[in-house]
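Troubleshooting: if your tokenizer reports a length mismatch, compare your output against this known-good record of 323 residues.
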Amino acid sequence: MKRFALTLVAATLASSAFAEYPEKPVTLVVPFAAGGPTDKVARDLAEALRKPLGGQAIVIENVGGAGGTLGATKVAKAAPDGYTLLLHHIGMATSPALYRTLQYKTLEDFEYLGLVNEVPMTLIGKTTLPAANYAELSKWLEANKGKINLANAGLGSASHLCGLLFQQSLKIDMTTVPYKGTAPAMTDLLGGQVDIMCDQTTNTTSQIESGKVKAFAVTTTKRLTTPALGKLPTLDESGLKGFNVSIWHGLYAPKGTPKPVLDKINAALKLALKDPEFDKREEALGAVIINDARVNPADHKKFVEAEINKWGPVIKAAGQYAD
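Known-good structure output:
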């Protein structure tokens, strides 16, 4: 009985020690450059998290490089106190296959806090392409094997992954043109230096609305409902059965972060995902807020493990690795 009482007291003291968390600004690491799609999501999320975390500031720190692995490494090695968090996209699941060496273990060195959103992707092309829809584009791609330039934002980027799967699904090899980020890739697509690109709606919606690119299809299994993208067919219905790529974002903390802190962050995340202003901003970008079991840490981790198993074979088949 005495031992039970001491254990209860210890647990109570440990819980109370974190009752005031957060007592200072929280750093949210974005493993990509400012202005990119993950950065946009992070800044919207930071604003939505502020209120449920007692009004404390959420400071964005952009740690770009090596396909997001530098920023992830920084968080994996940070003090496990809840004051350094990571917002990462699908690269969390693809890096184990893309990089021969990583400074962290994806499923072991982080605390999983919950998924935030899923961002559909769009297949777009330069305006001078002689195709008005996906059926015509498919014929053009078949007729121009060996001459097609496919842009992406760099190894491990969302556009790179979508491009890999697109080529494998069509069984057509294209000349992959990697850039150091989404902005320069889009600039060259707008200028006609490259032919096509598969990228997130967060990057493509405004270009589609303005008519600066041709839009051919979306990568989800269901059509989107946004005004700019609602009329686009899915690649699945266009003939690439089973094609389904969404770029999700999740929230993480260093391994060993105290459970009371993790619980508080997860509770704040769930409230942030219901924030009307956050929802409005994400919807405008074509993103879908997560409202299923994956907002829970255990289900978030199971999902990432499944994604590792999904993308590993795709990446290995392409033979594209980084040291």
